[in-house]
Design goal:
Blueprint (H helix, E strand, L loop, with lengths): L1 H5 L3 H20 L6 H25 L8 H18 L4 H24 L5 H20 L5 E2 L8 H4 L1 E2 L2 H28 L7 H23 L4 E2 H19 L1 H11 L1 H6 L4 H27 L1 E2 L1 H9 L1 H13 L11 H20 L3 H28 L4
Antiparallel strand pairs: 1-4, 2-3
Helix pairs in contact: 2-16, 3-10, 3-13, 3-15, 3-16, 4-5, 4-6, 4-13, 4-14, 5-6, 5-13, 6-14, 8-9, 10-11, 15-16, 15-17, 16-17
Amino acid sequence: MRGSVRDAERGPLLVVAGLIVIWIVFQALDDKFLSPRNLSNLSVDIVGTGLVAVGIVFVLLIREIDLSVGSVSGLAGAAFAVLNVNHGMPEWLAVIVAIAAGMAVGAFHGVFFAWLGVPAFVVTLAGLLIWNGLTLDLLGASGTINIDEEGLVASLTSRHFGDDVAAYAVAALGTAGYLLAARRKRARHRAAGMPYRPTGEIGLRTGLLAVLAFAAAHTLNRFQGLPLALLIFLVVLVVSDYVLRRTRYGRRVYALGGGVEAARRAGISVERVRVAMFMVSGTLAAIGGLFVASGLTSASPTTARAAGSGMLLINAIAAAVIGGTSLFGGRGSPWSVLLGVLVIQSIASGMGLLGVEDAVQFMITGGVLLAAVAADALSRRAAARRGRP
């Protein structure tokens, strides 16, 4: 356990400690912060940014960056609203078209970067401006499109499973899934003669996870139950983590993040992997944009400009980096987003309750991001001194 804390897991533990401090401070300043209502709202608020941040993780793992995700999110929300409200397209079909548009945008960026050699920073920066301009054109200079408050997209953030069994079932399933995965990993490592976690450590970790999961379920049930948005977010995290850690394709992604030439010599199609990662980023940005539109129950030029200005982008990158994904590639996981976005949204929620001005919120968020990046750089420098990758 001491070795784990010293090395790979020190970062997440520090983030958890920081999150606890944040919650204690805001609860001391306003006793409504840790109320079931506010924590339930917080669990919904993290989803839009969290989904975008998961896409950012895929791109960061290959040592690149996608600056267009905020604009792609706004474009997806606007495309859905225009198709469904203005043109009468069924909601389910408009959702598919909006998500497909995000995937196409990601492929567009990936082709310019991987096959034409244009730096990803330049391609996605241009995309930020292009897609934000297209969003404003779709909505009109002064038009706001309100979506159906009882419709499919609106229900993404408003729907809750009121039955207590739902939240407890998810907590039990998550705990059992972790235990099964940990035991299978232990058996594989033991059979291969690799270091593996002792049974006692696995039991301790499972117990801690069970306490946290059931405490969260109890808190959610004290308000309106398990939010649909949170359930979808957790499913995306599980699927993304499985793809990256348990599939051949995921291993190629990490290999590419470790070194382009080494990955190419190992027979990996670098260009295809790069295009695929930008497609994943664009797709998840579009899905996140639909959740943002769901929370606002509208799409408007104001929200489009906000996305294009970079606030959603900054929050998404901050969530990924604060959670432990490296800006230098090759290290991180989708689960890191959960911790990072909780930190970002907890700060926003707490300062919102206290009535803190937006300017102060921006400065604090920027400071937290800078601290996370600096910690990442120092960690890699220390690892290099010890002769580790």
